Automatic annotation (TrEMBL):
Endpoints of the signal sequence: 1-37
SUPFAM superfamilies: Carbohydrate-binding domain (SSF49384), SGNH hydrolase (SSF52266)
Alphabetized UniProt keyword annotations: Carbohydrate metabolism, Glycosidase, Hydrolase, Polysaccharide degradation, Signal
Name of this protein: Cellulose-binding protein
GO molecular function: hydrolase activity, hydrolyzing O-glycosyl compounds; phosphatidylcholine lysophospholipase activity; polysaccharide binding
Species, as recorded: Streptomyces qaidamensis
Domain CBM2: 258-365
Keyword Iron-sulfur: no
CDD domains: XynB_like
GO biological process, one term: polysaccharide catabolic process
UniProt feature coiled coil, ranges: none
Length: 369
């Protein structure tokens, strides 16, 4: 990761090569065009992970993104299975902030591995647990969920850099005990991080609590307003920029890497329409490999208790826990490199489910040699 205002390893290499060229050119030696070009790296992928404070609309992400770009960090990519949700300013809005989610449920239901597989982050920026604290879940159980998620992050990327927030204050009118429960939980996070971090995959605690006012910085005692967004972004920025400046090892298993095991496809979910008790969704499967695939299988994990009932342009199998497996139809399984196929579905959902959301992944089948 390079930042324009600071010297990077690539720039230092260029300086050495430039000096070498200056010494050799008088001797009649020349370099082919592009011979001194700096090596390029994939953008560093940053996953914002959490609940509605992160995702809906989670405008601190927009503030943070633009501050990073304005500070010279160009090779960054915010990633997640959820799309941008407004905020009124241009930014990379992909995120993994699912409204209403409990971190304990994400751990118990193993929801994170599929999301990691779809987005392959190098860094996770996590503010997660507000709904668990609100639900009076014990700190020990929340921290156990944190530990499980960290293990899943490292299974996805052994070099994962993890930034974990001490939660912003919470004082909703319906929860008299929430304010103190946040204080009690936050006090446990630094010790958990010291025990969980490793040299290869460090865990950095970011204090989002100090200086944050539920009266001035939220609109309902929980969710940040514009002032709160600015404060959250200001706390994430130095911690994230320090990780970027230190350099992030790129995942050796990225698609397209020589000798890697490239993913055959990616899948992306879109909500077409919604109504009380259900919604229509659409998933686009894209062949991201260099070869044609002869078939594909997508996995759809609907959020918040939804369940797929009807499906077209594929065949549907639904597990007892609601996880749906969709296989291509006879006419849309063969995809050339870069080609896509789309299937649609209707899902039923509890009245309290909130905005439609789903985690989607896929695998492809290459033709027999």
């Amino acid at each position: 990761m390079h930042r324009t205002p600071h010297s990077s390893p690539h720039l230092r290499v260029m300086s050495v090569l430039g000096l070498l060229a200056a010494l050799l050119l008088p001797l009649g030696m020349t370099f082919a065009p592009g011979a001194l070009a700096a090596p390029t790296a994939d953008p560093v992928r940053v996953m914002p992970l959490g609940d509605s404070i992160t995702g809906s609309p989670g405008c601190w992400r927009a503030v943070l993104w633009n501050r990073l770009v304005d500070s010279g960090y160009k090779d960054i990519d915010f990633v997640g299975t959820l799309p941008p949700q407004g905020c009124g300013q241009a930014h990379d809005g992909d995120n993994e902030g699912h409204g209403g989610e409990l971190v304990t449920n994400v751990a118990d239901q193993n929801l994170l591995p599929g999301r990691l597989a779809s987005t392959r982050p190098d860094i996770v920026v996590m503010h997660f647990g507000t709904n668990d604290v609100w639900s009076s879940i014990a700190p020990d159980r929340i921290l156990a969920a944190y530990t499980k998620l960290v293990a899943q992050m490292r299974a996805s990327n052994p070099d994962m850099r993890i930034l974990v927030a001490q939660l912003i204050p919470m004082n909703p009118s319906s929860c008299a005990g929430c304010a103190q429960r946040v204080v009690d939980f936050n006090a446990r996070i630094p010790g958990w991080a010291r025990a969980t971090g490793t040299d290869r995959s460090p865990v950095t605690v970011v204090d989002q609590w100090t200086g944050f006012s539920t009266a001035a910085d939220t609109y309902d005692g929980v969710h940040p307003n514009a002032s709160g967004d600015a404060k959250i972004a200001a706390r994430w920025f130095p911690a994230l920029s320090a990780v970027l400046d230190a350099g992030v090892p790129q995942d050796p298993g990225d698609p397209g890497d020589p000798g890697g095991d490239p993913a055959a496809c990616t899948a992306r979910f879109r909500a077409v329409s919604s109504w009380q008790g259900g919604y229509q969704g659409e998933v686009t499967v894209t062949n991201t490999s260099a070869s044609a695939v002869s078939g594909w299988t997508a996995t759809v994990v609907p959020a918040n208790g939804a369940r797929l009932d009807q499906l077209w342009n594929g065949s549907l199998t639904t597990a007892a826990n609601g996880t749906a497996t969709v296989r291509n139809a006879a006419w849309n399984g063969t995809l050339a490199p870069g080609a896509s196929a789309t299937f649609g579905f209707v899902a039923t959902a509890p009245a309290t489910a909130g905005n439609p959301a789903a985690t989607v992944t896929c695998t492809g089948t290459t033709p027999a040699a």
